[in-house]
Design goal:
seven-stranded mixed β-sheet, binds NADP nicotinamide-adenine-dinucleotide phosphate, binds zinc ion
């Protein structure tokens, strides 16, 4: 076995603390990765606080992993020692179902294996994530990080990047399209950069006036403060596509639906702990669509990384040491992240 050091929540809702554990020795198709950096996703906070249901503890969170290949199993063909690689939210799937066969492993009909908190498919144990110094992953769930992307800034692309790229691509954000991003956090700020690079007009819908200047600097064409009394009236029937990245259910969805054009779509990627309350009338009256989207498959994740390298897109990050993780969580909860915390796992 391979000795690993990480940061784990010992029990639900407890602060994270140093933790040592073991990774499996590489099997034929496994890649051993020295983790250099791992982003902090709001999902990590939902997970360690059991906001989506009971988890497995101790839990080492982290699914925005960037690192360097330490070793490979004898049948690995895509990667060699020293390569820059990434791992996102998935480490396995059935590979047989109709969705897996379409490169949509995130929608595996048997249920995907998440990077942390999932039972391994062979029943050998619970997966542990990227707030650690080493991980062992099947090569088909590893992506290549292009040389032009620095590893610290590449890390958040593995979740925040792909979670916005996938719906923007699926609903065809591009020239002539008016796109809104709800919530300027880790996911939201990637949405602004990606939608802009795809050629869309981009508006940020935020509840924080303090983010107005940043939104425009990040490339947004417009900023709408959703606390303003006239915000919804002034932007009625304006958008083709709205992506909701808000982590809270404390939203009046009918107001946001009213911002869509006829046949427009609002896609929720934010995954709050409580159900959203939905009044269907604004959907009915303008034949609007309300949809959801989960991360992206491995093929699309590689496509997103190559797109980011080509268009020189990287997240805005605040690099911190692993012992600062609990303070970072508190700041994320206050919407005070500018715009993704990344853990320097070399400092564990
Ligand atoms: P984050 O960095 O905390 O950003 C969330 C943003 O939502 C905040 O910055 C804030 O933006 C806004 N917000 C928070 N509370 C609000 C409230 N009460 N009312 C209105 N706006 C509020 O979180 P993240 O890491 O981007 O993740 C966002 C959500 O997506 C989480 O629920 C996460 O679990 C989920 N997620 C889903 C997927 C998927 O595959 N679907 C993947 C990753 C993450 P403003 O200050 O600009 O309003
Ligand atoms: Zn995530």
């Amino acid at each position: 076995m391979i000795q690993a050091k990480g940061m784990a929540a010992p029990t639900s809702k407890a602060p994270l603390k140093p933790y040592t554990f073991e990774r499996r020795d590489p099997k034929d198709h496994d890649v051993v990765i020295d983790i250099k950096y791992c982003g902090i996703c709001h999902s990590d906070i939902h997970m360690v606080r059991d906001e989506w249901g009971p988890g497995h503890f101790p839990m080492v969170p982290g699914h925005e992993i960037a690192g360097v290949v330490r070793a490979v199993g004898p049948k690995v063909t895509k990667y060699k020692v020293g390569d820059h690689v990434g791992v996102g939210c998935l480490v396995d799937s059935c590979a047989e179902c109709a969705h897996c066969k379409q490169d949509l492993e995130q929608y595996c009909m048997e249920g995907q294996t998440l990077t942390y908190g999932s039972m391994e498919r062979d029943g050998s144990g619970i997966t542990q994530g990227g707030y650690s110094n080493v991980i062992v992953v099947k090569e088909s769930f590893v992506v290549r990080i292009p040389d032009s992307l620095p590893l610290d800034k590449a890390a958040p692309l593995l979740c925040a990047g792909i979670t916005l790229y996938s719906p923007l691509a699926h609903w065809k954000a591009g020239p002539g399209k008016k796109v809104a991003i709800m919530g300027l956090g880790g996911l939201g700020h990637m949405g602004v950069k990606l939608a802009k690079a795809m050629g869309a007009e981009v508006t940020v819908l935020s509840h924080s006036e303090s983010k107005r200047d940043d939104a425009l600097k990040l490339g947004a064409d417009r900023f709408v403060l959703t606390k303003n009394a006239d915000a919804f009236k002034d932007n009625a029937m304006y958008f083709d596509l709205i992506i909701n990245t808000v982590s809270s259910a404390d939203l009046e969805m009918a107001h946001y639906f009213s911002l869509l054009k006829l046949d427009g779509t609002l896609v929720s990627v934010g995954a709050p702990d409580k159900p959203l309350s939905v009044n269907v009338f604004p959907l009915i009256l303008m034949r609007r669509n309300f949809a959801g989207s989960a991360i992206g498959g491995l093929k699309e994740t590689q496509e997103m990384l190559d797109f980011c390298a080509k268009h020189n897109i990287t997240p805005e990050i605040e690099l911190i040491t692993p012992d600062q993780v609990n303070v970072a969580y508190e700041r994320v909860l206050k919407s005070d992240v500018r715009y993704r915390f990344v853990l320097d796992m070399g400092k564990i």
